[in-house]
Amino acid sequence: MRTRTIRLAVIAGSTRPFRRAHSVADWVCAAASEPGQDRAYDLTLVDLAEVDLPMLSEPAPAMVGQYAQETTRRWSELVGRFDGYVLVSPEYNHSTSAVLKNALDHLYAEWRDKPVGFVGYGTDGGVRAVEHLRLVAAELGMAGVGPQVALNLFDDFDGQSCAPRTRQVEARDRMLAGVARWAEALRPLRPARSAPVPDGDRPILADPAAYPAATDAVEQFVTALQGGVDSSDADRFDHLFAADVMWGSPYGRTLAGFTELNAIHRTLMARQAAPPSRFEIVRVTAPAPDVAVAHVRRQAVDADGKATDGFSEMAMYVLVERDRRWWLAGGQNTPIAQAQPLPS
Questions:
Q1: Which of 2, 114, 208, 242 sits CB 3.0–4.6 Å from 327 for a disulfide?
Q2: Which residue intervals define the domain SnoaL-like in the entry (predicted)?
């Protein structure tokens, strides 16, 4: 069963003036939106003229995956987003274009274990360019699908525009269906690669409208913590802890549930295991109207309330609203190796 839409890149493999590659790539991408078609894939046109890669000048082989050039890193990001590819290539001297070969040579892992389809064009349909590309793709660990498209300059173009015959449309659709099937079949072979997420695809979770309520909730929660520490009262300290609270101590222990945690806090406070301390809210965010996430610093203080070099920690707390009350869902306390004095 398909878990998500297959994403295919259609790479226009020529940058010459008056090139036909862009028109051909547009025609391939049009398959995704033709009426009456139930497509299992999305098609994105990737124009090498816009990518604008220099000739390969990376100091390390692409197989190493250590890219020194910013242009290569951007190309890696782009290529890594897709599940498969369609290479659109002219035929130059019984081979593909230099710009397309250069683009392939820049990367390695980003291509591996993914399918590739081919659309060639030329006086003989670009078949020799595609034969060369099949060898390159195989060396990169790609799976070249059998069906391919061979567009004839005399029969499948109207001037510079791509105007394929009906049988070419059928060949295109068979090729794309093959790439999509192989992309799904090869998915288990591809590890979840750490291709960087484009900035435009990374969400901002903070909800400005929810921030005031979240801030009030965190302030009330920290007031309870401070009151519990000042009075050595574990019940006051744990007053807003949920029944199934998750807790990580500064010493690496993890606990779950109010009952166990409160018993430990009672024992520690009876022994006065921790010195007097002061809590300070560092940052609050509200990813949802009923959720607050906060960084809270706890700093040891002396009898005059001044920060000392003793015990200090940074905590992350997650509070959730239920029935108009806010409860601690989880807390993680991390010791600060070198205490930093709080601002006065």
A1: 242
A2: 218-314
Torsion of CA 194, 196, 202, 205, to 10 degrees: 50
Q: For residue 294, which of 240, 230, 243 has the smallest C-alpha distance?
A: 240
Residue 152: closest CA among 122, 132, 118, 194: 122
Q: What is the C-alpha to C-alpha distance for residues 153 and 162, in angstroms, rounded to an integer?
A: 9
Thinking of the domain 208-335, which architecture would CATH place it in? Roll (3.10)
Q: Among 38-47, 62-71, 320-329, which stretch is predicted with the lowest mean pLDDT? A: 38-47
Residue owning tokens 């994403």: 7
The string of pLDDT tens digits covering residues 252-302 is 889 999 999 999 999 999 998 778 899 999 999 999 999 999 999 999 888
Helix/strand number for the chain, H first, E second? 9, 14
Query: Cβ of 217: how many Cβ atoms within 10 Å?
Result: 25
Which CATH superfamily hosts domain 6-200? Flavodoxin domain (3.40.50.360)
DSSP string across 46-77: EEHHHH-PPSP--SS-GGG----SHHHHHHHH
Q: Which two tokens stand for residue 4?
A: 């998500």
Give the pTM: 0.57
- Within the chain, all domains assigned CATH 3.40.50.360 are found at 6-200
Which residues is 327 bridged to in the sheet?
Answer: 320
Cα-Cα-Cα-Cα torsion 200, 206, 209, 214, nearest 10 degrees, comes to 180
Both structure tokens of 287: 């990813």
DSSP alpha helices (H): ranges in 256-330?
Answer: 258-270
All CATH 3.10.450.50 domain ranges of the chain, comma separated, are 208-335
Report DSSP state, residue 38.
Answer: -
pLDDT at residue 160 in the model:
84
CA angle, corner 316, sides to 312 and 320, nearest 5?
140
